[in-house]
Amino acid sequence: DAGVTQSPTHLIKTRGQQVTLRCSPKSGHDTVSWYQQALGQGPQFIFQYYEEEERQRGNFPDRFSGHQFPNYSSELNVNALLLGDSALYLCASSLPRGTYEQYFGPGTRLTVT
Amino acid sequence: ILNVEQSPQSLHVQEGDSTNFTCSFPSSNFYALHWYRWETAKSPEALFVMTLNGDEKKKGRISATLNTKEGYSYLYIKGSQPEDSATYLCAFIGALNRDDKIIFGKGTRLHILP
């Protein structure tokens, strides 16, 4: 049973560039959430996708956008990268109902220079 | 803005000793509280999912309690072992409405000293 997978593992980008991160949920899960974890902070909720639509959103600017595909995989896009976007980006999948237990992927480490 | 606070931020415990730490969360609009263990170079993994006031859950030497009326949860580790070294995160889930989302604390980093 495949768990949550994310790609790439590491990424280095320059200020002003755009980046796309990818996530495949755990088998049987149809809800995907994205989190940003900066140094010394807990994971900050970016948004959640269910049925190919953004269902909830945290306090992140519109530069952060996402997409969910019919196979439930998801992408996180960040435009006009800032140095402050450097962080670990975690994807988690869950069922859309119940207790919303999050199953996390290994994360993508994004460095913006 | 809803806040989830965890204390202490960091903790050093001698192997074999017991320890506990706290997660404080909004006492209104509660739906569920999660505890996760995050070991270095791994993904966070769920320890407990708690939904009812007074819940007590146990997994081996680790247990957790929940008080939704006053907005806190304790995580206890009995007889700490080196493999318990990790960051422990709690996450608050509010009742479903368009403004609620999963809110994580900053975590408690536990170091077990041999």
List the helices and strands and how they pair.
The complex is a heterodimer of chains A (113) and B (114).
Chain A: E1 5-7, E2 10-13, E3 19-24, E4 31-37, E5 44-50, E6 53-57, E7 64-68, E8 74-78, E9 87-94, E10 103-104, E11 108-112
Parallel strand pairs in A: 2-11
Antiparallel strand pairs in A: 1-3, 3-8, 4-5, 4-9, 5-6, 7-8, 9-10, 9-11
Chain B: E1 5-7, E2 10-14, E3 19-24, E4 30-38, E5 45-50, E6 56-59, E7 62-67, E8 72-77, E9 86-94, E10 102-104, E11 108-113
Describe the structure.
The complex is a heterodimer of chains A (113) and B (114). By secondary structure, chain A is mainly β. Chain A is built from no helices and eleven strands. In chain A, the strands form two sheets. In chain A, strands 2, 4, 5, 6, 9, 10 and 11 form a seven-stranded mixed beta sheet that branches. Chain A has a four-stranded antiparallel beta sheet with strand order 1-3-8-7, with no helix packed on it. In chain A, a hairpin with a 5-residue loop joins strand 7 and strand 8. Chain A is globular, with a radius of gyration of 13 Å. Chain B has 114 residues and is mainly beta. Helices cover 0% and strands 55% of the residues of chain B. In chain B, strands 2, 4, 5, 9, 10 and 11 form a six-stranded mixed beta sheet that branches. Chain B has a five-stranded antiparallel beta sheet with strand order 1-3-8-7-6, with no helix packed on it. Chain B starts with a strand and ends with a strand. The interface between A and B is medium-sized, with 25 and 25 residues.
